[in-house]
Amino acid sequence: MICASIANINYPELEKIISDFEMIELRLDLLDFSEQEYRKIYSLGKAIIATYRYGKTEDSIRIEALQKAIVLGATYVDVEIDASNYFVETMMDFAKQNNCKTILSYHNFESTPNVKELNLLIEKSKQLQADYIKIVTMINTSEDTARILSLYEHHKNLIAFGMGDMGKISRIASIYLGAKFTYASFSEAQKTAQGQIEYNELQKIFSTINSQ
């Protein structure tokens, strides 16, 4: 399954294209929709990930936005494993109380850590009882690709792939190694991560592979 990451778009534009996607990630930190517009999106019955990346925004604002998304019907909520303990615990508890699946995510925008460090992150996520564990790192060498994809051999409920041009192949391979879904940009101009493949292009790639 392909998840289209939605960001930097107004609601009328999204309304025209949303039916094209089977699953979406709402980047709440990069969207400015009204509550009524969000209600319309959640009412469509699509699988939706609610994500609010940390940066300049206070945890209290992020928590409020994500909790509202869960109440409105988000299927998954993405929680950064390296966020504050308060944020992680609050969001994990609220999600479970409201039957929303949790994705504990780790992002490294510079490199791919060694296998020991990656496994420690995964074990920490398991201890926090995450439904899914997302590991995304920058791929600088072919060895980085092999390292990130090797995680599937030992772990379930994992979504692991690499960023950057060298990481593109891992976004595709992850689906065949056990990832429930992979991420794509909804358009070529609106990528939310380095090396992200546009939704329609990724669909064509999977269609070609599956027809062999």
Percent in strands: 15-25%
How many DSSP helices?
8
The CATH architecture comes to Alpha-Beta Barrel
Radius of gyration: 17 Å
Give the termini separation.
Answer: 18 Å
Integer tally of domains = 1
The biggest sheet, with number of strands, parallel, antiparallel or mixed sense and barrel status, is:
8 strands, parallel
Q: CATH topology, anyone? A: TIM Barrel
Uncertain segments: none
Q: How are the strands of the largest sheet arranged?
A: 7-6-5-4-3-2-1-8
Note the overall shape: globular
> What is the H level of CATH, i.e. the homologous superfamily?
Aldolase class I
CATH class: Alpha Beta
Give the ordered list of helices and strands.
EHEHEHEHEHEHEHEH
Topology (SSEs and partners):
Layout: E1 2-6, H1 11-17, E2 23-27, H2 35-42, E3 47-51, H3 59-72, E4 76-80, H4 85-97, E5 101-108, H5 115-127, E6 132-138, H6 142-150, E7 158-163, H7 168-177, E8 182-185, H8 199-210
Parallel strand pairs: 1-2, 1-8, 2-3, 3-4, 4-5, 5-6, 6-7
Helix pairs in contact: 3-4
